[in-house]
Amino acid sequence: MIQDKTQIEKTFKTETAHVVRHAVSERCRYNVHGHSYLWEVVVQGAVNNITGMVLDFAELKPIKDFIDDFDHAMVLYKDEDPAILGFFCAEFQRVLVMQKNCTAENMARLVFRETQKFLDTLARSLRVVCVRVRETTTGAAVATSCDAEDRILYSSIKENTTTSAEALAWLQSSSRVKLESVKRINAQLGDVIESLLFLIEQADPTAWNNEVVYQGQDEGSVMASKYLERARKQYSELRNQIFQLEHKEAAEKAKKV
Questions:
Q1: What pLDDT is recorded for position 181?
Q2: Residue where a domain stops, chosen among 106, 132, 162
Q3: How far apart are CA 207 and CA 166, in angstroms?
Q4: Higher model confidence: residue 254 or residue 149?
Q5: Best CA proximity match to 154, nearest among 139, 170, 142
Q6: Distance (Å, rounded) from C-alpha 240 to C-alpha 174?
Q7: Alpha-carbon distance 181 to 42, whole Å?
């Protein structure tokens, strides 16, 4: 038990983006947005008689490095739309996927857990008092506890990409979900094409001969024809995506055999 009540506090800064599903604000719930975060870590322990310190601030570098992964990164919730997860993981260099919703509260708990794990390795009877995450000048979350679910499920940081078995398994699962998502969108687009064909034929049955022809059609039919051209192009692009994803999946399966 720690008798000395001396505490030290270290502040870190990041510029971080996220989407907060289930938020009351529609701006936060439906849009990617960012904050200038301040991460305040408070540690308690006995003052060393020789150094005069509870802990040298420089010794908190592992925590600094952990928090730095959030800087200029996109943070997502594991239950985010599969298409969005797949897009960010495939197209961006700094992406973190959290086990829990990526709120300031859960980010604070995440750092609390990581800090306590680090302090336990020092064997100096140190403990985390709290982690405060300031999201805005008027709003902050303070964590004084954590649990096993407070963790990063997947981390793709250009200079330090996670390659744990769990992360790789999640990514493969995400790729599969992305494939299913593209197939679903493609099927829906096929339905749209069928509907557009019906509208064109209803407007002018003689104008449709499996080709888009504007001459002799009324304004509504011309508009439907233009939408059809666009839908066909998107349909073709999605078919190519499906082919590429299925080819990639088949290659990954072949490697395991």
A1: 56
A2: 162
A3: 56
A4: 149
A5: 170
A6: 19
A7: 43
